[in-house]
Design brief:
CATH architecture: 3-Layer(aba) Sandwich
CATH topology: Rossmann fold
Shape: globular
Radius of gyration: 16 Å
Structural class: alpha/beta
Largest sheet: 3 strands, parallel
Strand content: 5-15%
Strand order of the largest sheet: 1-2-3
Number of helices: 7
Number of strands: 3
Length: 143
């Protein structure tokens, strides 16, 4: 019930979503479609972590064993035709990263989409990166 939009609240409104991550994006795509049908004029998304580019081999955090199920990887394949140049998509300041985020936003029906930078997430946690597992975001596992 919490995911059913209330037209009286959403109609004609600019809406911002806040979430921890986008894994596959399937539920979010349905949510944006429903909000648009309920009259939302704009939909914006802000994500508390970087894009998930690698499935978790440790705790199954991303609940996916295939990289092609991940929204970010699907976007890369759509842009490139295959999974290549992944490293260029890791750089928050690269044109490839911007294109990937725009593709995810378009696929999900969002007007804008922003992810937190990995370095800002690490800073917010307050531990050195070497003490954290960042595999889902950058492919490294340092602990």
């Amino acid at each position: 019930m919490k995911l059913i939009p209330n037209k009286k609240v959403t109609s004609g409104k600019r809406i911002i979503f806040l979430d921890d991550s986008i894994v596959r994006g399937t539920q979010l795509k349905d949510n944006t479609r429903d909000l648009r049908q309920a009259g939302a004029s704009e939909l914006h998304m802000r994500i508390a972590c970087p894009p998930l580019l690698y499935p978790c081999p440790f705790l199954n955090f991303s609940q996916s064993r295939s990289t092609l199920e991940l929204a970010a990887r699907k976007a890369i394949v759509k842009l490139e035709g295959e999974e290549k140049n992944i490293e260029s998509y890791l750089d928050h300041d690269s044109p490839e990263y911007a294109m990937m985020v725009k593709e995810i936003a378009t696929t999900l029906g969002m007007d804008t989409l922003m992810f937190q930078r990995l370095e800002d997430l690490v800073k917010a946690i307050g531990l050195p990166k070497a003490k954290l597992c960042t595999h889902c975001w950058d492919g490294s596992s340092t602990f």
